[in-house]
């Protein structure tokens, strides 16, 4: 089945590490022309080289998604250097381990501005381009099981991911008429830098043992879902879905 991905312009945030790095590589492999966005530009430059060496096309963009002005400028830069955005993967995210009573305003802002505000305004900038150019775009928001069931000591993170899921429904409802499909992936525990420190702790070991199959996922476990949601024909009818990929955790 044709994916419709080859030649499409994709923007992936948080492409400097973890899931975002993997998503960018997979989209490039599928033939997308990929803009890689994050704050650590040295890492982006390395990934850009890697993608080019494998015959793909990529550009690196310095971006702090919590800065709405920078978000708008980055979307405009992608349009100017590559063309209008057809695929957006809103993946950049941060978390803080804190009890609710310890959360300061700065903690709240750091998590909500990155995970929610940045994702909203980048999707808006991308959707404006899609609408203007009549592109049947694909927006994939990276949520979390924390958006479905709160995680302990991660209140603002859980709240941001629950709101991101609802944002996905709002976007699907309003932008569907323009041919844009907006969906979310809500992963369970996947081994990346975000989880690495925690996994070396006693609590981390206990957590893995408590998982339904006593194992964490790997970034590649999300490849198929990502490609499906970024595709054209195969995902035509999928709009407003929050797809959980958690190895059965929420069902346990
Ligand atoms: N790993 C898991 O188990 C898991 C589970 C559920 C959901 N998720 C979600 O998946 C996404 C990726 O997580 P991950 O595990 O890959 O985390 P990670 O390894 O810590 O990577 C996070 C990425 O987000 C970027 N980022 C953070 N703040 C940013 C900002 N202000 N502006 C631009 N980029 C920013 C980082 O890049 P720079 O630091 O270079 O800017 C980095 O590339 C997140 O949204 C996370 O909530 C992860």
From TrEMBL:
Residues 8-188 form the Ketoreductase domain. It comes from the Bacteria. GO terms for molecular function: oxidoreductase activity, acting on the CH-OH group of donors, NAD or NADP as acceptor. One of its GO terms (biological process) is fatty acid elongation. InterPro entries: KR_dom (IPR057326), NAD(P)-bd_dom_sf (IPR036291), Sc_DH/Rdtase_CS (IPR020904), SDR_fam (IPR002347). Belongs to the short-chain dehydrogenases/reductases (SDR) family. This is SDR family NAD(P)-dependent oxidoreductase. It comes from Rhodovastum atsumiense.
